[in-house]
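User: Structure with guanosine-5'-monophosphate, tokens only please.
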Amino acid sequence: MSGVLFVISGPSGVGKGTLVKILIEKIPSLALSISATTRKPRIGDADGVTYFFMTKEDFEQKISQGAFLEYANVHGNYYGTLQSTVDDLLDEYAGVILEIDVQGGHLAKLHYKDAVTIFIDAPSEEEIKNRLIGRGSDVEENFELRLANAQKERESAKDYDFHLINDDLNECANNLIKVIKSYIQ
Ligand code: 5GP
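Assistant:
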């Protein structure tokens, strides 16, 4: 196990997914850990690619087996990082990204003291609202809850190592790449 663990968190709709995609493309020694979730797949989701989709029963069984490095209830569904996934990736890559919520980020930091935590925020509350509406599926799927959680996440991420604002996508991606490259080759 030699890789560096990077935790990336931020409110729903802030563009974490897009930024992480850019990171993986630009830094070949970096891998993204695929999480497990009980939320229903959206259009564009694929099992084993975007998430490992599980029933609540299967997820709870994995909890009781101690299979998760961290897990949390986010917007009414379970999301979790499998320890086995992270162990395998840390063996193989210089850096491993966990794109997880702030509760999970704090738990991950307890296990991996050297983990680097990065919070991505939107320039304003209004911007988050617009981005969530633009995404469509979240309007039906607990939109209000996602919005309320954005403020809570921001509050509890005060102890994160880095805070970046995703105003201009390219600029934010470049800043993120700079942070990551300061820890790995
Ligand atoms: P979405 O449903 O939009 O894919 O994700 C909702 C939230 O769950 C995002 O804030 C995302 O960072 C978080 N999330 C995704 N995977 C995990 C995980 O494995 N653990 C935790 N704690 N949060 C996660």
